[in-house]
């Protein structure tokens, strides 16, 4: 997915609202609410925080990626179903998936 915005000489978008929206959509800012994540998923977009691989360029080689706030289990629960463990805190999660994120134990 590509977005276009007018940018300044130092590359950030000139419009602060556009910059904030792009930061949310690229998950560089924390998701403001789970409802925001639901809108993204509902539009059939895969949030970066649900991905486990990344590329440095279009069609470039894939490399392992661990998002700071993973939502892969949450996304799966909203789309195809999930077998991930439900949680309220990370203390409830097993060692293999030690982090409670968006209500599910994640890596």
Supply the key terms:
two-stranded antiparallel ribbon; 107 residues; globular; alpha+beta; 3 helices
**Major β-sheet strand ordering:** 1-2
Distance between the termini: 25 Å
- The helix/strand order is HHEEHEE
Structural class call reads alpha+beta
Total helices: the number is 3
Unreliable stretches: none
In round numbers, the mean pLDDT is 88
Principal-axis shape: globular
- Number of separate domains: 1
Number of strands: 4
Radius of gyration: 16 Å
User: Roughly what fraction of the amino acids lie in strands?
Assistant: 5-15%
Range of helix content: 25-40%
In this structure, how is the largest beta sheet organized?
A: 2 strands, antiparallel
3D structure, described in words:
The structure is a single chain. With about 110 residues, the chain is of the alpha+beta class. The chain has one domain. The chain has helices spanning about 15-25, 35-40, 70-80; strands at about 55, 60-65, 100, 105. The strands form two sheets. Strands 1-2 form a two-stranded antiparallel sheet. It is globular, with a radius of gyration of 16 Å. The two termini are about 25 Å apart. The model has no long low-confidence stretch (mean pLDDT about 90).
